[in-house]
Design goal:
Structural class: alpha/beta
Helix content: 25-40%
Order of helices and strands: HHEEEHE
Distance between the termini: 59 Å
Largest sheet: 4 strands, parallel
Low-confidence stretches: none
Shape: elongated
Length: 139
């Protein structure tokens, strides 16, 4: 083992090292989020927009595909932060296998309130898996 690692391990606790790793992880997430905020300002979005939250490799053409870690997504936003979209600017929000990655009592209420804020009054919020997305009226 590297002498520096051995020294750190012998002079710190597992909990301390875990907290440092978590801080590094959050720093990386923050950097991704900040880069995507700049990218969002450059995107020529036509409102209302359709959101594909937690898109992973399943990007949908014509949608704003958001995934924190997958490079195929249009932007890598931290959805625990305020969303950089105007109120009522989204016609459709789709999310598949995303909510289980968030803390239920602290983070999910924020996700739901931001979804409600950006969703157009006649918009659709779909969580789950669909074999085929329905056609949107007027699209």
């Amino acid at each position: 083992m590297d002498p520096v690692k051995r020294y750190i391990k012998s002079h710190t606790t597992w909990a301390f090292r875990s907290a440092v790793r978590r801080a590094q992880w959050e720093w990386d997430i923050s950097r991704r989020h900040q880069r995507s905020l700049k990218k969002m300002r450059r995107l020529a979005l036509h409102f209302p927009v359709k959101l594909n939250l937690g898109s992973g490799p399943n990007v949908r053409p014509g949608w704003l595909n958001i995934d924190l870690f997958h490079p195929a997504a249009d932007v890598q936003l931290d959805l625990r932060e305020p969303w950089p979209l105007p109120d009522g600017s989204v016609s459709f929000i789709y999310s598949e296998h995303m909510f289980e990655h968030f803390e239920f009592q602290e983070e999910v209420p924020h996700l739901l309130s931001e979804s409600l804020r950006v969703l157009h009054p006649a918009g659709v919020f779909d969580v789950g898996k669909l074999a085929k997305l329905p056609a949107m009226p007027g699209s």
